[in-house]
Specification:
- The structure is a single chain.
- This protein is an alpha/beta fold.
- Helices cover 41% and strands 18% of the residues.
- Strand 6, helix 6 (136-148) and strand 7 (152-157) form a beta-alpha-beta unit.
């Protein structure tokens, strides 16, 4: 069992509990801005930990960090909500949604419609769907349901086959992750190559392993229109200042 499979396995028990104990209606949603309309730009990620790097940022005042990203020029914010391996929380998303006006992405391992409904109620503008963990019919079903709830979808791939699955779906925001979620090895050269082959009617977003303005320039030259950056910002002494530096 690879790490991606373990993450999904360990999410299921609490998800089933929430579905039983916290019924959610498909109405009375908060108004949210569009992630697609906010691009091009940087999606700044709030990430406390990861399976490959362990604890990334011990001091983690999510609302203060989110506000600093907004002030420093982020086009959107990604909020990790996976609790077991990334130390995230849906409460982080709820709190941030009350403090910033830019779009919010729920970054999680989504495989159930209830998770999408949670995201919408929590104030998300978009959700992440990971091609590596979803069969094509699951991907289509979840992407269509998200759009029914007026949520944008960022589809994530890390190889050509996964990009094909996303291109055969209604997903328009195509995230290309430098980090293989089965091995956690990163390869920015592969991202550059894959992005250059995404058709013009889609919106490529480079994810992971971006550490400098030079990386952003290189990826932009390849065709990237968005940049999801987490660890580089979270390890900086002042994340908002680091974001401003990357935007120069």
């Amino acid at each position: 069992m690879n790490i991606l499979e373990k993450i999904v396995r360990d999410l299921r028990p609490d998800l089933e509990r929430r579905k039983r104990e916290i019924p959610l209606a498909e109405k009375d949603f908060p108004c949210v801005p569009s992630l697609r309309s906010a691009m091009p730009g940087i999606i700044a990620e709030l990430k406390k930990a990861s399976p490959s790097k362990g604890l990334i940022r011990e001091h983690f005042p999510v609302t203060e960090l989110a506000e600093s990203f907004e002030r420093s020029g982020a086009s959107a914010i990604s909020v990790l909500t996976e609790p077991n391996y990334f130390l995230g929380s849906l409460d982080y998303l709820k709190a941030v949604s009350k403090r910033v006006k830019i779009p919010l992405l729920r970054k999680d391992f989504i495989f159930d419609r209830y998770q999408i409904l949670e995201a919408r109620h929590a104030g998300a503008s978009a959700i992440l769907l990971i091609a590596a963990m979803l069969e094509q019919d699951q991907l289509l079903n979840l992407a269509r349901y998200a759009r029914e709830l007026d949520l944008d979808v960022l589809g994530e791939a890390h190889d050509a086959e996964e990009i094909k699955h996303l291109l055969d779906s209604p997903v328009t925001l195509i995230g290309v992750n430098a980090r293989n979620l089965k091995t956690f090895v990163t390869d920015l050269d592969l991202v550059t190559e894959l992005i250059s082959n995404i058709p013009a009617d889609r919106f490529p977003v480079a994810e992971s392993a971006i550490t400098s303005a030079a990386d952003i320039h290189r990826l932009r030259q390849a065709g990237a229109k968005g940049f999801l950056i987490g660890e580089t910002l979270m390890r900086a002494p002042v994340p908002g200042n680091k974001l401003a530096e990357l935007l120069q």
